[in-house]
Amino acid sequence: MKIVMLGAPGAGKGTQAKMIAAKYGIPHVSTGDIFRANIKNGTELGKEAKSYMDKGALVPDELTVRILLDRVAQDDCAKGYVLDGFPRTIPQAEVLDAELTKLNDKIDFAINVDVPDENIVRRMSGRRSCPSCGATYHIVHIPPKQEGVCDKCGAALVQRDDDKEETVKNRLKVYHEQTQPLIDFYEKKGVLQNVDGTVDSEEVFAAIVKILG
Ligand SMILES: [Zn+2]
Prior knowledge:
Layout: E1 2-6, H1 13-24, E2 28-30, H2 31-40, H3 44-54, H4 61-72, E3 81-84, H5 90-102, E4 109-114, H6 117-125, E5 127-129, E6 136-138, H7 165-178, H8 180-188, E7 192-196, H9 201-212
Parallel strand pairs: 1-3, 1-4, 2-3, 4-7
Antiparallel strand pairs: 5-6
Helix pairs in contact: 1-9, 2-3, 2-4, 3-4, 4-5, 6-7
Bound molecules: zinc ion (ZN).
Residues 130, 132-133, 135, 150, 152-153, 155 line the site of zinc ion.
């Protein structure tokens, strides 16, 4: 079972990918994790990727694809995998498709965790974190006992730059421009499945399990 997860940053697709991996016994392949692993292990691919990152440049699609294909060729991926964070663009999706076709294989499900932008902005901009111990809160969903103060260590909570409304809106804009076309791509292939991502994560997961069987 080969699955691609789609959804905006903050939609919760990483959480769902982990739950799918655990239930179906297939690896959760997150591009972030495989980049870090290749760099940490000093592989040739990792060295190449690092040379771009050190310059502050984006890792080219072609290299990202090679790192991904190297990962899914490993034994533990033989029965399937859940891709999280890949493909991000149409060229990446096309290369993945072409490589899988060569192996007489294909993506079985593209699961789009659908959450309207307003909800994502509300979710993310309500996050607060403790600069001292790393605990995280949400002003509505997981509020600290005393407003603005960490329950665990008493430090003043902050809003990370990543969680500021403007940053979130910019990320969503990039997402819609770049990743939204992937939804159309997988729809044309007949493998797209939309799930409502506005409900709690257990309910989202139940909907996904219904689709995967
Ligand atoms: Zn703290």
